[in-house]
Amino acid sequence: MNKKKAEYVSIAKFLTKKHPLPQIVKLLQEYYENGENVYVEYNDHTLYSADNLTLEEAYKLMEFDKNQNFEEWKEKMENDTKKDIINKLINYGNSFIPKSKQATWAKMVNYSFENGYGESVINQIINIMEQISSGTTQDKIDEVLNSATTSGGAKETVIKYLYELLGIDVRQLPKQITHSTKDIGGRYN
Asked: What is the DSSP letter of 137?
């Protein structure tokens, strides 16, 4: 927070105790967008327009211990959200991957997030596995590999990861793919 609380204006006089949290958050967001520094006390918590909280963050803030540092708490919340995303990607990817390679997949997803690739590489891999499972063509796989969101290094990582998971070079698939990723991976792994 850039300013001291004394420099913020309370908007409590515009609110009643019956205002639900979603309305309060929306109001604070409007003040934020207008560059106005306001705050409101809600359920023993002080909400500031400058924090530009989402509704989800505000609900989680209601669980925030006032003795914690807000920035540390917010970072922890973001890390928890990242863990949720990682777990969802791992679980979804497992639906395409032979059981023998699921631990490898989990490591790949975690590694991608730890090393700055984040979701882009993992989403490319999932997209290609979805394409293969739905009976696609090499041209469609090439289109995904050459898409704008895949940089040269990331493209090579996608190819390497898919080879490790499925035992195939996705640049050299048959003209028409008729097997699922689990079938392909099961044959080569």
From this structure: B
In whole angstroms, how large is the CA radius of gyration of the chain?
23
10 strand-pairing partners: 39
Q: Are 98 and 187 in contact (CB under 8 A)?
A: no
Q: Which of 170, 157, 156, 165 is nearest to 187 (CA)?
A: 165
Task: Read off the pLDDT of residues 136-166 as tens digits, 9 standing for 90 and up.
Answer: 778 888 888 877 455 556 788 888 888 888 8
149 phi/psi in degrees, rounded to 5:
-80, -5
User: In this structure, are strands 38-42 and 9-10 parallel, antiparallel, or unpaired?
Assistant: parallel
Q: DSSP label at 150? A: -
DSSP string of 128-141, one letter each residue:
HHHHHHTT-BHHHH
DSSP H helices, the chain, are: 21-33, 55-61, 70-94, 102-114, 119-133, 138-145, 152-166, 181-188
Residue carrying structure tokens 């796989």 = 141
Tokens matching residue 40: 């409101």
Which of 96, 31, 83, 26 is closest to 54 using CA atoms?
26
The number of residues making up the chain comes to 189
Summarize pLDDT for 87-120 with one digit per residue, the tens.
888 998 998 888 999 999 999 999 888 877 767 7
